[in-house]
TrEMBL record:
Residues 29-159 form the Tripartite ATP-independent periplasmic transporters DctQ component domain. It is found in: Cell inner membrane. Part of the tripartite ATP-independent periplasmic (TRAP) transport system. The chain crosses the membrane at residues 12-32, 52-70, 91-109, 138-163. Its main location: membrane. Belongs to the TRAP transporter small permease family. It is a multi-pass membrane protein. This is TRAP transporter small permease protein.
Amino acid sequence: MPTNPVSAYLGPLARLFALVAGYAVLGLSLLITTEVFLRKMFNVSLQGSAEFGGYTLATLAAFGFAYTWLDRSHTRVEILLERLPRGVRRVLDLISVLSITAMAVFMAWRGWAAMADSVAYGSLSGTPLMTPLWQPQAVWVLGLIFFALVAAATAVHALVLFVTGAPGLAEAYGAKSLGEELKEHAAQLNERGTGQ
């Protein structure tokens, strides 16, 4: 099977961002646990845990989009796709890549516009912390821009594969078949069993 150059070059960075976002969720969980404990035991509240939770989840989603896209884990309904002729599947896979790219670019553009408005108007959060909104939005927008760049790179690669008729479009950007998912899970179980 041909190697996907987009995954080879951008995949490690996407994975790193996904891991950092995952640790941020872990930190958020610890913050919320501490908040609940302090409220219950000492009737004291940490200000801002809900606010930071919203920022964390928005950033997690933005950075997670690229990793999920490269892993081919975005939700798709493939019940009919597997039964279609190969040529039709190639067209649908290309449309899928171009659609997600258009959506990623649109989200990055609108995210940038929202952050620019926050800077222009000096917008603050409606909480006691009065956080300047451009600060968490800047991290969120970076995630959206990274997703847009990854999606654009996949669109170029998918177009090249489609136009040249080269194999690998479905393997790189198509929906995972049930067989592929079972092989992945079996490989993960095998790694755990051997302790690697």
